Amino acid sequence: SKLFSPDRLYDIDHIIPKSRYFDDSLANKVVCETSINEEKSNRTAWEYITQQNSLLGICSEADYVQHVDKIFYGRKKRNLLLEKIPTNPVD
Predict the structure, then answer these.
(1) Would you say 49 and 59 are in contact if contact means Cβ atoms under 8 Å apart?
(2) pTM of the full predicted structure?
(3) 32 and 48 in contact (C-beta within 8 Å)?
(4) Does the pLDDT value for residue 43 go beyond 60?
């Protein structure tokens, strides 16, 4: 129920920022807490996790990789673990 709360506790986040990659597909989106999305800003998910400068107590890089490997697959998993933004969006 918190997901649809008027308090806006959660956002749809672009794993690779749309402004940097122009991918608005479901493979490039996840639901996350609004505070995390705001702190992540214009970074990729991988940049955000590996820079470890969060004030919100995010998980370690190893825990993140383990979680992504367990839950995600295909393009979404690739996007979540992407270290460098491709020059051309993939279909």
Answers:
(1) yes
(2) 0.85
(3) no
(4) yes
